[in-house]
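Justification of resources, computational component.

The compute hours requested in this renewal are based largely on the per-chain cost of generating structure records like the one below. Each record pairs the submitted sequence with a full structure-token output. That output is archived, and it is also reused by downstream analysis tasks.
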Amino acid sequence: MIDVGLIGFGLAGASFHAPLVEAVPRLRLKSVVTSRTEEVAKAFPQATTVASAEALIADPSIGLIVIATPNDLHAPLARAALEAGKHVVIDKPFAVDPADGEALITLAKARGLVLSVFHNRRWDSDFRTVLDILAGGALGEVMLAELRWDRFRPEIKQGWREATVEEGGGMLADLGPHLIDQALQLFGAPEAITADVAAQRAGVVVDDYFELTLHYGERRVIVSASTLVVSARPRFSLHGTRGSFVKYGLDQQEALLRAGGKATDPGYGEDPPETYGTLTLADGTAKPVPTLRGDWRRYYQGVADAILDGAPPPVDPADALTGLHLIALARRSADEGRTLPF
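The structure output for this chain reads:
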């Protein structure tokens, strides 16, 4: 059993990390750094609240620190936790500056500690289904893949996510790590990138739209997100030499957890039949493809296995670092208006 300390009890901490830690038998949520004492007591009565990250990191009983804070605090808090001999999970993005990510990887290796980044979207129901379809070869050679995440949020929220890019704000830093990580898992590192990054809503100071084209020889992989799309485009669309697969709608886990559900609830991670994707073959036949079950618990099960059994971490921080380098290169590509080699 590993005692876990959680730093931050906002959306990520309260709706994602704490419930998932609670759902894994070999992990125990012991302490949370937050001023929301009553909320923690109600939702996780076994956990206590702590006034500061420094006090939590100094607690000798805590074996794993989970960092779910504003993005600019990820690297300094992770460094402090690693230096104190703690294993660390960082919510995405890994860091604001790729150099900080590299330094954290070096430190974790030197101390023999587990360091991982919460790329939970590898265990989305739709992404697992896409992996399965590609493994089965039904699409042939994929020449165009589009991974899109659309929202309609015309209002500007007064929070750190829309403060400044230097503090880790903006959509490219928010949704970009997930989409890029999925693209890397599907197709590996690209040869080059062409990026369009924009601030489209009146008065917004950070990017709220991006479209990145990743180049793999003749193949193109597009990852994109927007805040001004009422009728969302397909979440996944893949087109190959034998067929196409198109899937609308988001994985259901976030909505359930944000509504107060638990990862142990019946039906957790399941996709309703009306949102199954469609596989269309070259001869014109089309059929729905049942969505595989998603399960974010597998991330934290992997963390427990890495700490207690010496297994590889469920997300290698080197993968997250590659994503950070792509995000940095995307900003440069957008600024310069040209395709850049990776």
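The radius of gyration is 20 Å. The first strand starts at residue 2 and ends at 7.
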